[in-house]
Amino acid sequence: MTSLPEEALRQLFDDARTPKVWLDKEIEPALLLQLYNLVKLAPTSGNCQPGRFTFLTHVVSKEKLRSALSVGNVDHVLSAPVVVIVAHDPLFYEELPKLYPEVDLRSWYAEDIPFAEETAFRNSTLQGGYLILAARALGLDVWPISGFDNSMVDTLFFEEQGWHSNFIVCLGHAKQDQESERLPRLEFEDACLML
């Protein structure tokens, strides 16, 4: 593998900011399909792929989310062109005979529900991180949040599926005149060990 060009790295990391205001610009369904087709390639334990993604694109769907959001997040979320609920399927292991046919991984999780739940949460979080990077790679701005009532979101959106929400990602195009200084980040020596 070769390193990405500096321009691509800047788009994914250095220049990326959390939008304060969104442009009123629609995101085509084809772009969301392209986004998911990148996200599904993310590595997960035993190819378990527990992540589930609900794309709220219509004002009525987004408005349904209002009561579950923390007050400070309401305007940012509801004004975003697309809101993605990143969730996981606690019964993800039912797909393993198809996703990893070489070994009977299904029984590992079906017989140990706490292990299955931990695996689903961890790997859906990983898939959600890939969603953020894939969206940036496709030219979208991203605003991830965790300020909402998970159990309320699960009741409002996932009663039939039984999925569990993890976090929310807002997608769109930011107004370009709003760039601000990046808040401080920890230095290598403060956050890393080299053993």
TrEMBL record:
InterPro entries according to UniProt = Nitroreductase, Nitroreductase-like, Nitroreductase_HadB/RutE
Output the superkingdom of the source species.
Bacteria
Any idea which GO molecular function terms this record carries?
A: oxidoreductase activity
Give all residue intervals belonging to the Nitroreductase domain: 21-173
- Give the PANTHER family listed for this entry: MALONIC SEMIALDEHYDE REDUCTASE RUTE-RELATED
The protein depicted here goes by the name Nitroreductase domain-containing protein
The organism encoding this protein is Commensalibacter intestini A911
Question: Lineage of the native species?
Answer: Bacteria, Pseudomonadati, Pseudomonadota, Alphaproteobacteria, Acetobacterales
